[in-house]
Amino acid sequence: MLDRLILLLLTMILSAALTAAMVMQFAFGEIPCPLCLLQRVAMFGCCFGLLHQLRASDSERGGGIALLFALLLLVIAARQTLLDIVPRPGHAYIGTAVFGLHMPVWSVVIGVCLLLAMALRLTLFGSPRLLPPAGRPPLARAARLLEFYVALICALNFGAVFLQCGFDQCHTFGYRLLT
Total structural domains in the chain? Predict the structure, then answer.
């Protein structure tokens, strides 16, 4: 039960970070850069892996998917952070800082925390266990609601990226299909 609750909380935290990125994009007019978009893809991959693991009762495949996407997130975010760490013309951090950190640095923190949380989860709980029928419904309902929410923000993000990039290379100057 605690194992499933941890998976649910990790997914909620990731979906909150993705929601915050979308709110900043639309409310503050901050167009995400291509590397920021790749970080979002990696976060969505983590979410879908965690949601798959929530549904699985006999496999750690979803946890493995989440771990791979967390590693991808960490690589992409570390690359962007290292590219922008020294301010120079044309290569400053894009967007507003939240609590003093920009999106790539937050993504590094999120990636490290995800890897740590998943490693601790595997250390504490090992392989998945079947839950008793009485323990399933509340978590199952919350997981289904979260699945719907993650799919919704993923679709909204996909639509925004399509408006920004069309079928061409992405840029940070505006929404290509709206101009």
Answer: 1
